[in-house]
């Protein structure tokens, strides 16, 4: 009969009841049973009602894991026996003592070699390998290295403290900025609310004025109709009387006429009543003048908002979209006309900006030259229809420009002449994508040049568009 192996000879308590292997980092729990630390922690990862022992099901309200170093040493002996190793009496104590001394000479390690970074015994210190090296007693070397580590530790702590202070300062500044933005938000809301209330109050006042004028007109109309109706009735009565007299026989007619003291013909006095309508007409005219002034003020206010509110962006010209007769700067900041353009189709000397707009409010300023001709604005679908000309139906255009001294508003289909104006040096293009608005301003005078009616961009990317025409022309 074969002799039992070392594993078979060990008691069952040497194996974990969960993984059925030798204990790894054994711990005992509240009921006294032992388990691998990792096994019991996995079992107790999501406790439902207390912490139950997987073996006896005894439950504890709190988790308790007590290390078992004695069992760990027994298990180490079991593992070595299972590998066929033998252990002498007191071998562990000897290994611990050897671990604290020189493994070669069995002498205590008393000095530290700084060059090799190794602990040496007295015999190793006098050897040829370490004779020329700097050595220090272990306590002194430990103090020296601890001093260096403490210095580095202090540097790290100082750096950490500085970072903590910096973080606190950054957080304070961030909160201050958040408070500032919130204050600005409340300020904007308050200003526009006051403006809205003021406009509503003015609107109610103007509507009340109109109501008064309407009531005055109704009252005057009623009085005029009443007065005129009475006068017409009196005249009808007089006409009827005279007609009856005229139908009498001649002798009777003459006797009645002379005896009644009737005024001879031509003595009837007819006076038209004075009309109050001219005075009301003056009131309506004054109201219209004030209303027109108010409309101009509101339009100017809207122009200011349209000029100031959009986010300013930098536009870079895209040389790949430039006409061959345009010279585009390497950095995409300018374009100039070179040769006179041809006469055939597709010869418009234009160029697009790299940046597209697909939402929001954007604006950009363009410096224009007084010489030559130029135009600028936005184009929709221009990249997809590269090489096509305006009016081809492939892309749409909203722009304005100067051609031979005349300002024009230009679309893909038509040209609209604009009123004469001083030539601007800088033109601001303002785009409101959601509202479909494109407006042009004299950037220096902050005055509106022209604004297109609201359009639909149909979700397409809007590209800045520029045209330079004629010798000396440049943007």
Automatic annotation (TrEMBL):
It comes from the Eukaryota. Residues 97-138 form the B box-type domain. The lineage of its organism: Eukaryota, Metazoa, Chordata, Craniata, Vertebrata. Gene3D superfamilies: 2.60.120.920, Classic Zinc Finger (3.30.160.60), Zinc/RING finger domain, C3HC4 (zinc finger) (3.30.40.10). It comes from Dasyornis broadbenti. This is TRI27 protein. The gene is Trim27. Residues 335-349 have a biased composition (Low complexity). GO terms for molecular function: zinc ion binding. The keyword Kinase does not apply. Keywords: Coiled coil, Metal-binding, Zinc, Zinc-finger. Residues 323-356 are annotated as: Disordered. Signal peptide: none annotated. Residues 203-245 form a coiled coil. The keyword Zinc applies. Residues 294-475 form the B30.2/SPRY domain. Residues 16-57 form the RING-type domain.
């Amino acid at each position: 009969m074969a002799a039992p192996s070392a594993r078979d000879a060990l008691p069952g308590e040497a194996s974990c009841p969960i993984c059925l292997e030798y204990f790894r980092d054994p711990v005992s729990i509240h009921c006294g049973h032992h388990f691998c630390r990792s096994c019991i922690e996995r079992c107790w990862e999501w406790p439902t009602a207390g912490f139950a022992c997987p073996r006896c099901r005894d439950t504890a309200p709190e988790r308790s894991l007590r290390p078992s170093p004695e069992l760990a040493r027994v298990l180490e002996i079991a593992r070595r026996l299972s590998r066929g190793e033998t252990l002498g009496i007191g071998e562990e104590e000897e290994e611990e003592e050897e671990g604290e001394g020189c493994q070669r000479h069995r002498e205590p390690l008393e000095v530290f070699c700084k060059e090799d970074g190794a602990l040496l015994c007295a015999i190793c210190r006098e050897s040829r390998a370490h004779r020329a090296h700097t050595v220090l007693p272990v306590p002194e070397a430990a103090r020296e290295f601890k001093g260096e580590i403490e210095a580095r530790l202090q540097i790290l702590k100082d750096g950490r403290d500085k970072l903590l202070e910096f973080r606190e300062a950054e957080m304070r500044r961030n909160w201050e900025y958040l408070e500032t933005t919130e204050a600005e938000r409340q300020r904007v809301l308050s200003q526009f609310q006051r403006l809205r209330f003021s406009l509503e109050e003015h609107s109610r006042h103007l509507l009340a004025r109109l109501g008064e004028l309407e009531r005055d007109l109704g009252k005057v109309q009623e009085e005029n109709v009443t007065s005129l109706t009475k006068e017409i009735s009196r005249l009808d009565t007089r006409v009827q009387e005279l007609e009856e007299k005229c139908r009498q026989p001649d002798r009777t007619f003459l006797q009645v006429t002379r005896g009644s003291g009737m005024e001879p013909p031509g003595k009837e006095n007819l006076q038209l009543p004075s009309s109050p309508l001219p005075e009301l007409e003056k009131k309506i005219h004054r109201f219209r003048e004030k209303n027109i002034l108010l409309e101009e003020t509101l339009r100017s206010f809207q122009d200011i908002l349209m000029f100031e509110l959009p986010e300013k962006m930098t536009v870079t010209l895209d040389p790949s979209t430039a006409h061959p007769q345009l010279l585009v700067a390497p950095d995409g900041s300018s374009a100039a006309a070179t040769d006179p353009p041809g006469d055939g189709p597709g010869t418009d000397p234009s160029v697009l900006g790299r940046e597209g707009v697909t939402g929001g409010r954007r604006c950009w300023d363009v410096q224009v030259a007084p010489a030559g001709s130029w135009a600028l604005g936005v184009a929709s679908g221009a990249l997809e229809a590269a090489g096509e000309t305006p009016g081809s139906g492939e892309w749409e255009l909203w722009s304005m420009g100067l051609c031979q001294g005349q300002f024009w508003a230009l679309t893909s289909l038509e040209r609209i002449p604009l009123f004469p104006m001083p030539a601007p040096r800088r033109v601001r293009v303002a785009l409101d994508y959601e509202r479909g608005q494109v407006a042009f301003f004299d950037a220096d005078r902050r005055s509106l040049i022209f604004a297109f009616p609201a359009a639909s961009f149909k979700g397409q990317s809007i590209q800045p568009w520029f045209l330079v025409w004629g010798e000396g022309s440049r943007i």
